[in-house]
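EI: anyone free to look at a 339-residue chain?
SC: sure, send it
EI:
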Amino acid sequence: MNVLGIETSCDETGVALISEREGLLAHRLYSQTDLHAVYGGVVPELASRDHVRRLLPLVRAVLDEAGMRGEDLDAIAYTGGPGLLGALLTGAAVARSLAWGWGVPALPVHHLEGHLLAPMLEGEFDFPFLVLLVSGGHTQLIHARALGDYELLGESIDDAAGEAFDKTAKLLGLGYPGGPALARLAADGQADALRLPRPMLDRPGLDMSFSGLKTAVLTAVRKGGHAPADVARAFEEAVSETLVEKTRRALKQSRAPALVVAGGVAANATLRAGLERMARESGVPVHFPRAEFCTDNGAMIALAGLRRLQTGRAADAVDDAGAPVIHARARWPLAELTA
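SC: here you go
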């Protein structure tokens, strides 16, 4: 099977083509970072309009690179949620329309399922495994027993880790997006110059909290006396150590034989090093996506669509009369998926 994947959940327009036999054939990604940077964050209406401009040229580029036509496809997978509703509707409408024109089924894919499967783009491995999903919108520990069989073990009760990175970067006067900028600044920071709290490590359970850590950074900045690089390093170390310890506990609780780390924050070098060290100590392999597939991308959506089609899952979302429908949900709990 050949599956085209379309991702438009937020501020990246991603298109990719994956083959059951040959793997990833082509992919393109357009980031709207420059568009939203002047506003200090994503503007949903602008994001939707930019997806309209970018999608069809990216689809044409991917098909041309792979040497295929639309009629050569077996299905189109698109992000059905969660995400910004206008952005989701743009991708879903284009995917559904192309599928109708080319006579192939369209499959709505859960955005988070795409992320947790993204490390499989680097090589196949089997379920079950524990997932640490860390992005701008989600920080979750998930026991993935099988495709579609996911148990949420713990999550952030307030800010996601990526959101905390962005807000802290703003406090330090860094640009948007803040996460990568903060990580670059932290590399110049002095170890042990400042110690920030490790939220919720002093209590049992797997839930996390990062809003208090952000407040601690604000207090340190207002008091002065610390270089911005030292504050950035202290923040990055506090987030990383918190995530590593919570993941260690989740591995012990779930007894999962492997660890998967996905989402935009999975590209952070400090976090990766800490998780790799912890995984070695715990005796389990750890799988990361390559850096370009940590953020939102079409390849993970194409892969998730392919894996669901391989299970014999019906592709088209239909209404009561059996007519194809466009599926887009701003909120879509991962637990609602079925194996």
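EI: The beta strands are 2-7, 12-19, 23-31, 75-81, 106-110, 129-134, 139-146, 149-155, 259-262, 286-287.
SC: 👍
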